[in-house]
Specification:
alpha/beta; four-stranded antiparallel sheet; about 300 residues; 2 domains; elongated; six-stranded mixed sheet; Alpha-Beta Plaits
Amino acid sequence: MKDVSNKVDSLRIALAQGRVRAKHETIQVIKRGEVPKGNVIEIARTAAIQAAKRTSDIIPYCHQIPLDHVAVDFELMENTICVKAQVKAIWKTGVEMEALMAVSVAALTIYDMLKPIDDSLKIEEIVLLEKKGGKSDYAEKVTRPIRAGVVVLSDSTARGSRQDKSGKLIETRLKEYAINVVAYKVLPDDKALLIKELIYLSDTEKLNIIMTTGGTGFSSRDITPEATEEVIERITPGITETIRSYGQKRTPFAMLSRSISGIRGKTLIINLPGSVKGVEESLNMLLPGIFHALRMLSDEGHNENV
């Protein structure tokens, strides 16, 4: 089974369709409610809903997804019964298999109920019509150069007694999205130095985004939030609230982060934790959705496609 623990919960929607071909006379029997086994449509709908909820019991690699909505609709045509199933869930992975399972079982139920009166039945065209959800639906393609900076706050790393891994991870992940990391700086936990560096990268270098790592804890030397607070002009609490919420579901220590984020001019500044694990989890939450913030900062407006 695929590990989806690092994924973000989001609204997932899938729409599937299937068809059962039958004689014209059989369709009329259904409409008149004269099928010997009972109400074909309602029983097939119930079976489809049950099947969607039990998908993981049948298909080995499907996750157990808490479904929020299953809707099954039927259209009786001249010699065809069209079945459509829409499934919704707020979770980490898609619900297309649940929608396909619903349609398949509805079709099988129809087949079972009609086979005593129609030997021409045929199930056909079970297809996925639509799939939505996940961070990829909200990802924006980078259409212009984005210039980024990474600032590492660590006394030991600045002295050369410790190797930086967190800053390098940020740099690597940003480059995966074709972000140009033009500044990488290691500083000791010094408030005045950090303030000076953030102002320089924002006002002189005019970077689009700066990510700091380290100095966000409870130690007397952890000064990153205080320095950042003196630099930013507008706070963006939703970013750090979401990072902490995401992290807290994975480690009980995420609540101890004092990270903040905000805007200075056209530059977005985000504090990340100092640990590699904390940085990785934060980036899993931020990327690629954070690029929409940079679009807004450049006064380009909302992307109507996301």
